[in-house]
Structures are given as C-alpha cells and as structure tokens.
Structure prediction request, 810 residues.
Amino acid sequence: MTRRVLIVDDEPNIVTSLEFIMRRSGFETAVARDGDQALEEVERFDPDLVLLDTMMPRRDGYEVCQTLRAQGRTDLRIVMLTAKGRETEVAKGLAVGADSYVTKPFSTRDLVALVRELLPEEGP
Amino acid sequence: MRHDHRAAVAALTGYVVVAAGGLVALVAAGTDPLPVVLLAAVAAFALVLWLSRLLGRLPRAVSRLTGDTAVVVDANASQRVDTEAADLRGLVEQVNRLADEREAARRDVEEQVESARRDLEAERNRFAALMAQLTVAVVVCNAEGRILLYNDAARSVLGTDTPVGLGRSVFAMVDRGLVTHALDRLLSGAESVYTATSLHGDKLVRVRVTPARDPVAGEAEAAAGFVLVLEDLTREAHAGDERERVLRELTESVRASLGSIRAAAESVLEFPELSADEREGFLEIVREESDRLGRRVDDLARGTEAPADDRLLAEITGEDLLRLVSEELVRAGGDCAAPDASDLWVRADPHALARVLTHLVARAREGGAPSRLHLALDPVGRHGQLDVRWPGRPPAPADVERWLGEPVAGAGTSTAREVVDRHGAELWSGSLDPGTAYLRVLIPLTAGEQRPAAPTTPQVPSRPEFYDFDLFTAGPQVTEVSERRLDELAFTVFDTETTGLDPAGGDRVISIGAVRVVNGRVLQQETFEQLVEPGRSVPSASTSIHGITADMLAGAPSIEEVLPAFARFAEDTVLVGHNVSFDLQFLAPAEAATGVELARPALDTLLLHAALHPDHQEHSLDAIAGRLGVSVVGRHTALGDALVTAEVFVALAVLLRRRGVRTLGEAVELAQRSYQARVDARLYGR
Prediction:
C-alpha cells in the first residue's frame, strides 16, 4: 500500500521540490499552505506522515503538531521542517510531539531516508 | 511662688515695724493721734493693694523670665531677657551678663570649629562635585532602605514618579525583593556583586547592589545598609531587542531560501530523467531564491550591526530563579510555592522573566485559570524546563502568541516575546495530562553548570568622610507613628496661600509650598512648590499679601491634580505647619474629592510654641522666628513661609526635647493641651 505524506509549508518554492521528491520516492502526496489547511488535509487525506513547516500564517507548526497530538493522533508521524535553528526551538518541536526535526537547508536524500525510516514497509 | 510669699511677708513685717515705731514716736510727742490713725489706715490699704499686685504680677513676671531665659539657653544664645518687674531687674542683669559671657565663650569655640569645618566642607564639596559628574546613579541606603545619599543622576533615573530624597524609602522606586534577594546572596558569600535589571516607570534600569558596612560599627557587623549603582539601559535594551529581531529574521530567511535552493538543485541532480519543463522549473526556483538571498544580505549590510549582547542577563541558580518567579506570582495574587530545584544554573534576567510569566498567568486567569499554581524546573538536555502548572485546561496557543506580543510591566517597553527571545528561550502552553495545564519556558543552561567567576569586590570605604551618615543607626521603625521619636521622623513642613480666610465661604488654595526636615536638618534642596488654579477670582486684598494674581494662575493645575503630587512628596512624613489646621481645612475638600488623604496627625508650630511659652501673647510666625533667631526671607510665598516655619520647627524641636517631649504622640498631646488652654482663655478670659 502506498504511504501518504502531507507537505505543509507556505513557501511554494520548497513545496515544489518536496512534492517532486516525495512522489519520485514512491509516496502519495498532498499539500497544505497554512496551519488551518493542514488540519483539514489530515482529516481528508489521512496521511501516514506530515512534513510540517514551523513558521506559517494563522496557525504555526508547533500549534498544528500540538493539536494533532491532542486529537489523539499518536500513530501519525510528524517531521518538523524549520528555518529556525536555535536549540531551544528544536527542543520545543520535540516537546510538543514531533517525531523528528529537520533544519533548513537539509539534504533531500537524508530527508527521504528519514521518512522511509519513520514509515517502514511493513506498516506500523 | 513660695519665694514671692516670703518676700511679701518680709516686706509687710518691715512696714508694720516702721509704722508702729512712727506711731509710738507721735504718741510720745503728745500730738493728736487721729491723723496718725488715718495715715496708718491709708498705709494699711496701700499695703494690701501693693501686696495683691505683688502676688499677682510677680509670679507672672518670674514665669515669663524663666521662659525667656530658656530660649536664651536652648534656642537663641544672642537673645537677651528683660522684665517689667523692678524687683527682678538685678536678676535680669545677671542673667544677661551670664548670657554675654556664654556667647563670647561659645564664639571662641565656634571659630575653632569653623576652621575645622571649612576643611571638612572642602572635602565634601570635592566629593559632591565628583558625585555630580558621575553619569551612573548612586544611592546609599541604610538597612531599612532609607536614602542617606544620592546624586543628580539618581534623581534623573529614579525620580520620575516618586521624588528622590534623603530619608525616603528607596523601595518606593526599586523593587524590595530584588534588593533583599541580592543582600541575602551577597552576605551569604555566594556572590560579591549582584546585578539585576529592574524597572522604573518605563525605564529599564540595571541595578548593582553592594552591601555597606556601618562606618562606626566596622566590618564585624552585618551590613548596615547598601549601595545601589543604577544605569539606565532602556536604549541599550531597545537596541538589543532590535538587533536580536533582525538577526533572527535574517537567519530564518537565509535558511528558508537555502532550503528551497538545495531541494531544487538536488531534485535536478538526483533525477536526471526529469523533463525539460521540470528541469526549467527547478532552475527557476534556484534563480529566484538566490536573488532573494542577495537582497537580504544587502539589507543586512545597510541596516544592522553586531549581534545583541546579553548584558541584561546574569547567572542565577535554578533555586533562586524559582524563588523569584514564585514571589512575583504571589505578589500578583497567585497561590504559589517554589519547590526545591535540582542544582542547575541558568543565564537569565530573572525579574523580567518572572514578570513575563506573571503577565501570561494573569491573562490565562482572565480565561478562568485558577490562582493555585505549581512551579517546576527540571534539566532537559542542555536546557532548563521551567513550568508554571495548574489544574485545568491550557490556554490556546494562539492566545499565548498574542499575549507574548504585549508589553510587559517590569521589562522596560519590551514585549513578553522580546524578553523570551533575549534569553534565547522558547515559551509555549500545553497539557501535562488531561487535568494539568502548563506554561513552559525552555532556557539554555549555563555552560558546564559552573558558578560564574565573581568580579572582585569593590572596596566600600570603611569610614566615609564625606557625609554624616547619622541615619545609618536609625533603628527599625515602630509601626505606630505616634510612638516614634521625633528625632527619627521625617517631616514635611508646608504652607498654603489662599484667596481669603474662609474655605466654607468659597475661598480656595492658590499655592502650596513645602520643604522636608530630616534628622533635624531643613533640606533646602528637597522642596515642593506649586501654584494652583483656584477656579475663582483672586481678591485684590489677598493679592496685596501674597502677590499672586489671577494671570499668574492661568494654566496652573487644579487642587485635585496638585494634592496627589503633594501627598506623594509628603509620603511617610509627618506634616507640620504654622496654624496647620487652617491649611488642612482648605485641603480637606480636595482630599474628599480625590480620595487621597494626607497623613495625620499634623504638628502645629503655633500651638507648640504657645505650649512652650504660655506667657507670651504673640505667636505669629514673624514674632516666633524673631525670638528663636530664625532669619526671615521670602515671607508670604508658600515656599518662603514653609522654609521659615521649618527653621522654627527645628528650633522648637530642640526645646521640646529639653522639656522631655520625645515622641510624636507626646508632641501632639502637648499641642492639644495648648489648644485647649487657648480656647479656654478666649472663652473665659483667663
């Protein structure tokens, strides 16, 4: 069964590349442009993993992550993508329930490897 | 009195003996005895008259002479006594001779003292000039926080809302918790210098606290006071916040652009089979993001400087941080106990951080969060995780974000977010379990968790020569003000000018003047002077007394605005005035209207003088000033009169002490009795 990845970022330039790479790597993808859309897409698209940018209009990534965990979505893998590099920010991301935290700029190959690691073929 | 009787009896006996001798002589000469008997009767009548006059007048003259002599002895050495009673003339001469000799002897001593004082004065002036040139503010306080010394810079840093003055409590201006915390740490030897930031008005002030030893008691004693060195950091803090913001935004935008470029480039490199259109699209992303990066770097080169320094931050133990935060939360009305923290150190501006948390908790409480709070601080990796927890639901993250954008009382004009950013910290809300909400701050731990090296102790001179620090020895204050000793109280001596004499008939205050008296000194530099718009015309009859015309009052504040400012000036002091009930009567309507009440009881120099000198009929300010040797300048301005009254009060205070009147309560009682005596005298003609 094809694994589904939801890409959440308000920067179209990064979304284009992420969407391309994830599709080429064999994942089904959907895109959300802000925090509110992200929550809707999780409902509709039911992804296995979310690539979640931290800085977005309306709801930021931390809040989306916290909301999803509060909704009881403990099986959903969440990878935070951020341009914030401070250690406290990384720690905050993990504290609010992210499975992993990737700082921009990142290696796309490493990102794909990380997603594959979080979504083993056998399924959770 | 007994002496008067004895003199009278002696005189009477002498008279009778002489009269009897005369009568015997006349009878012996065989003259008709009738005129002699008449003569004797007239003489007897005259005798009775003389006796009654003697018994009535002499005691009053003696009592008056005693009072006048006391003035010479205690208050005004150049005053001389006089009397109308002929029998006392000799005594008066001797008293005045003694007074002359005493004055001459005193002048000798004074000349010697004067030359010594000139040297000291020169030292003081040198010191004062030095203090005046310091751009940092210096305040020296006794253990109670009363100000013993301050410089001009202190006045400008602290004196925005509350006037700075000798003997005033510094805690009206600087957080008491900060100072006591600093002194605890300094005296326990944990640190030798304590620096923190604090807020005054909208100023962010760096406070350095150093304990001061009592110059007399010496090193063995605990600190008899403390020295505060204050620096206005408002501008630096703003600049720091701004630099921090620019740097953060730059970092983030650079990372975002690099992220897009790298992802696009890698897409092209990793998937060589992609179509020409796809390839073109990725290259376009690379070009666009490169452009954006270039523009950001240009902006940076134009607009910013070096990254923010963290001068506002100081090393602090987790335990102290928790204690300060819990104190701040309790002060804001929460119920909060600080638990023991594991032994960790963080780099923080604890007061600002505490105020941010208090601000957020207050906001959360508006949404129904309870006042019962629990604090926790735990090391998490290389961070300290500080939690404020309470039973219930956490505030929505969007609300927390909004509250973070609000300015925080106690942190200059910084917003809560700026304070958090300054710490390199992160803050968010959440639930620990369904029943427990938290506000969490993640603060970087001090590298190596080592206690920072303390700078060397600045040496406080053990015997300052520049000031008579008499207030150093002031003991703890008795709560009941009337039980406090007059010589340890501070006074505000004031006077008002009015449009007339009848407040009930529409007369109003047009000017208030006041000066502080501390430690027996009139503080000429610490005065209050304010014209007041009376809301009515100024009768020319009153203008002829005080010289104030309606034109001069145009644009002056109303009494409702002036009274609160005056009350602040007079805070923690006892009011003193000449015929003070008259002035207070004029201020009463404004007290009722504003809800600001001046401290009672007030002392009245007129009544005190009348109590000390019941035999003098004249108690006007001019008459008293003249008798007490107070030079009168600038009379009939409120401040001028207040200054004269203050000098009079200082002289009266000396006389009161000699009379055994020690406390405020005793002085008030004396004045009260004097008032009653005056009322009685007026009613019954006594």
